[in-house]
Amino acid sequence: MAIPLAATSVPGSDATSSAPAKQVKASQKQLDSLAVKGRAPKTNYSRAQFGDGWELIAGCDTRNIILARDLKQPHVSSTCKVLAGTLHDPYTGKTIQFVRGANTSDDVQIDHVVALSDAWQKGAQQLSYTKRVQLANDALNLLAVDGPANQAKSDSDAASWLPPNKSFRCSYVMRQIAVKQKYSLWVTAAEKTAFMQVLAQC
Fold it and tell me: For the chain, which terminal residue's Cβ has fewer other Cβ atoms within 10 angstroms, N or C?
């Protein structure tokens, strides 16, 4: 089974390079278009508000589609499962040899760049269920990353967590800003300040 491609168009997606000035300016313009508000209550939040797990696309689930996109030399089974590959982790800068298995699969996790809980408190609860499912499975909002780093991030926004790998921070905030604009989410004042500080260094 051929695994579907998960193409994304996001500035600064290469973790080893700086974003061109025009891409930084585009992200700054996107950021300026976002509303600035406080967090809404987390009332009624659950993962189920964003769909029942990963969506299936042409018989392949989103997790495996993103693994196939982000791992180098992925080995994919006939049932669309990524069995092995190499991840150059954008969050930590580490190289991880991924092997699918009960005790090893969590070494690489799929992160929602804009955490679903954060999205819920910043406008997603006003979206339709269909749109929330789209957000949870959007390749723009998904990255294969180091499991412990993903756990450390949890549902933090940029005001409280940024990737330890400083060379990826520009790409990270650009992607968050792009997701928030695409789904009409807002930012807090502290979050906007964090975005501006990172973009100023790009």
Answer: N
Q: What is the pTM of this model?
A: 0.92
Cα separation, 70 vs 189, in Å, equals 32
* Residues with pLDDT less than 70, the chain: 1, 7-18
Say whether 161 sits in a helix, a strand or coil.
Answer: coil
pLDDT at 8: 56
Taking CA 13 as the corner, what is the angle to CA 55 and CA 4, rounded to the nearest 5 degrees? Answer: 30
Nearest to 129 by CA among 58, 175, 137: 137
Dist. CA 192–CA 121, nearest whole Å = 15
Which tokens go with 160?
Answer: 């409280």
Residue 36 DSSP label: B
- For residue 85, the SS3 value is strand
- The separation between the first and the last C-alpha atoms of the chain, rounded to the nearest angstrom, is 40
